[in-house]
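User: For my dataset I need records formatted as: sequence, then structure tokens, nothing else. Please produce one.
Assistant:
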Amino acid sequence: MSDPVVCSFITKVLCSKGGRLGFQELFQEVQLPEQQVRQILEDVGQERFVIQKEGSSTWVLAVSSVRVCVRKECFSGCSRLHLCKLYLMGKCRTRICKYSHDIFSEDNQKVLKNHQLSGLNEDDLRILLLQNDPFFLPDVCQVYNKGEEKCSQRANCTKLHICRFFLKGQCRFPHCKRSHNLLDPDTLALLLAEGLDHKIAWNIQSICDHKTAAFCKELGQSKTYSSNPKPTSGGRRSDALNWTEYRLEQASSLLTSMQLEPAKAVKAVSPTEPLSTEKEKSDEICLHYVWRFCKYRNNCPLVHCDLPYCWQKYIGNDWHNIAENKEIEKAYCDPSLTCHWNPDINFCSMTSNHAPVRRLSTPSSVTKPTKFVMTTKWLWYWKNDLGQWIEYGNQDGQHQGSSLGSDDLENLFLAEPNGTIQFEAGSQQYVINFKEMTQRNLLYNTKREVRRRPKFVSSEDVKTKKGHTAGPVPVSTAASASPLGPALNYPLEWDRSALPAIGYKAVELSKTSHEYTKIANLFQTTMSNYVIKKIKRIQNPSLWQVFQWQKEQMKKKKGGQNVEEKLLFHGTNYSFLEAICNDNFDWRICGTNGTVFGKGSYFARDAQYSHNYCQHKANSKEFVLFVAQVLVGDSAKGHSTYSRPPAKSTDPTRCYDSCVDNLMDASIYIIFEKHQIYPAYLIYYEEDKKCVLA
């Protein structure tokens, strides 16, 4: 029987690559012998993986029976996940959603564990659900699936004209008269509008094809079913043409001509390869086009607009520009307004008479250098007792200004849209919940609304800025404006060519560098029987900015004194490395090995201690260990019941920053706030062969 851990790891690898991989690519990713992987795939069968042959290529797709509960109210004991469908598809705009957005909740983790999917992160789970759970597809047209399959709406129907049994993999008719083609132009347009991309649509088609063929085989129908619609009479293909080849060619032809946005065509895709996601629908406006000129012209993957914003309404099967663009934008920029009356638009639900509405925008100003003058400046507001909306960092006459400004919050929000962050205003401490868009006083537990709205830019402003760049910012201004602004200085040793806007880059250190020597010496203090193969520096600009902001906040709490920072080790499962480098440490996933001193992420002074929690890759002798920069601050003795550091006896309103195993000689540190951690290095090492006894 196959190892569940290995199966889970293969599923994670597939989902991290969009849900499918070619055979050879999969072998390289999992770094297991080809024969072993083939045996695993054969043992678990199509309950976990589908093997699809298309021409000379063989693909492996991730499959699972895990499903999201469709009940509006559900009692305990349900075997399904309880998650917001719109959130998983990136479309939940409700300020306070009644459905869960937390895949790491206790109930959801039990479900994932039962399906052997505990190692998946949110993005992995999203891919797996989208290509397996029919709940995420548009509704199937019931009229089309009855009688003579005639729907009066035809091309205007907003429901899928697909055989409903095919989507379940249970169509028993070898020559079904209803369509089994999800890549038909009208059907694919509905899938794209729902929020699925081309690759996911392709994967669903392959999985349904495979399951239906297997179902027919079980029924004793050796002849492969025929999928409709057939090629048009003007086509040059014979009936003997393999259906898969026809479907791929049809999809390629469709994507060459289909317009996903007005005046924006989709790049042609090779009929022998999965559809590219490079040309998916974008909600970002091209900075260069608004500013002056875009050299990519119609081939640009971004939207071309004359203003840095554009309001659109979803009508039929496409997004259409709204004529009252500037009027709507002006209303939206006012934080006190929740709607626009003519036309009727609800800014909270982003709908207009029940139809979806969206705002296209240029990138946030905090993500680009100041010379880009057409970026969108986002302002953050909170609502005071008088119902007035006050921008963060400003005083309202009753309360002191917060230690956070709009740029600070914008950076923190972009780094973790569903996270929380603590800050101070005068003597009071608050926490902002980005997911709920609320601010809570930690002492009185009072809640206030929070809103994020753009700064209004008129047509005249655009004309004035067009073709110009911002002048140089005085050093004093740039340095004091925000610890998270674009002018932030990264460590001097960082490679400036490896600073991605999202995610991270791993840069291998030179063995002759001072940086390498420092980390190697720290490691070998307790690991002399092991030899380092390489050390990689993790460069994640988003996590670094949040880490610097957290350091500033802790420094302010100490009256300007420096905060104690340490380089500490952390060992974890190999499958969690990618998630940690991207999203930081999360004790609920990568810190479950022990909670003796509290429910947090554990870090060790000695590499030898963390090594005990390392799990090397299968069929490999190589281990990988994290070295993290940790703001330990003021520490208290830990306890298994702690879910946050205890309050200080000298000031009950303030808590310690971390917990330790021993106050006199701390060797283990427990961190409850992940912003106090930056995953700095990965050490790859093996046992020294000279130390192995024969």
